[in-house]
Design goal:
alpha/beta, six-stranded mixed sheet, 6 strands, elongated
Length: 285
């Protein structure tokens, strides 16, 4: 039983580390490359320089190969291979924290965000992207239908994903100012569901849930899943679709120079008066 106040352990981090090492031999990086390019673009829109930056748990070699022209120094913090998710960061030691495609495998995401918030100096920035939302909804539905049909029950296969509203709330709870979240939906097409699963293995993103089934998937179930996937989620040319929702989050360590919302009741003009002043007020539609 999980003690009160302790985050449940959803992911087997030692298994995840093993799969990421295997995937690194012949990795599939199209999602990471997309995210890294977007991080570079988003940083370019921030009118300031960063001198102490850390990349938190981005897989493989991290973001440094993609951001060498933007950041002079970027320390890569490798993801732990144990359940210990403490970050080796001193308080107020950073002015920028980045992460790409790692936070979806965190057992205690609220706790990790608090650690990053403490490590940022006043007016320091967190910018991260994680997989969430309706990612792999087609695969989840197809496996559930195949298992119900072939095995009489459904086992946990795809990790639960956070949605946009959850992430915004977690940023606020962790003490970030000016939190912003958005989602980038990427739809990838494959010749078959088996091709999708091969890419997931090459990303190190196959099932690492603690509650996963420990016996191999029956061949009949796997083939039936592929059939259901093709029946429900194929385009007219026969290729199947796979959805990836990339959730973006950013927030700043509080600083007195930042914009602050007005206090309730501090407005000097009522909403009714503002509407009545509008040149369109009372205009015919």
């Amino acid at each position: 039983m999980t003690p009160p106040g302790t985050a449940p352990v959803l992911f087997d981090r030692s298994l995840l580390a093993l799969r990421l090492r295997r995937a690194a031999r012949a990795p599939e990086t199209f999602l990471l490359e997309r995210v890294a390019e977007d991080i570079a673009d988003r940083l370019a829109a921030v009118n300031r320089s960063f001198t102490a930056a850390a990349d938190v748990w981005t897989p493989a070699a991290g973001l440094k190969p993609y951001l060498s022209g933007r950041l002079s120094q970027l320390a890569h913090i490798a993801a732990p291979a144990t359940a210990d998710e403490r970050l080796p960061l001193a308080a107020q030691s950073l002015d920028l924290a980045l992460s790409a495609l790692a936070f979806q495998f965190v057992n205690d995401l609220p706790g990790l965000l608090v650690q990053i918030r403490r490590a940022l100096r006043p007016d320091g920035l967190l910018l991260a992207a994680l997989i969430g939302g309706d990612t792999l909804t087609e695969l989840r539905q197809s496996f559930a239908a195949a298992e119900a049909e072939c095995e009489g029950g459904v086992s946990p296969r795809v990790a639960p994903f956070a949605d946009l509203r959850d992430i915004g709330g977690l940023l606020q709870r962790a003490g970030f100012a000016l939190p912003v979240t958005d989602v980038d939906r990427v739809v990838v097409r494959y010749a078959s569901a088996l091709g999708l699963m091969q890419d997931l293995r090459r990303m190190g993103a196959t099932n690492s849930l603690v509650e996963r089934r420990r016996t191999p998937t029956r061949r009949a179930t796997l083939l039936r899943m592929a059939e259901i996937y093709a029946e429900r989620f194929a385009d007219p040319d026969g290729r199947i679709r796979a959805t990836f929702d990339i959730i973006w989050l950013s927030g700043w360590a509080p600083h007195e120079s930042q914009q602050k919302p007005l206090k309730p009741g501090s407005a000097t003009v009522s909403l009714e008066a503002a509407v009545n002043r509008s040149p369109r007020a009372g205009a015919d539609e």
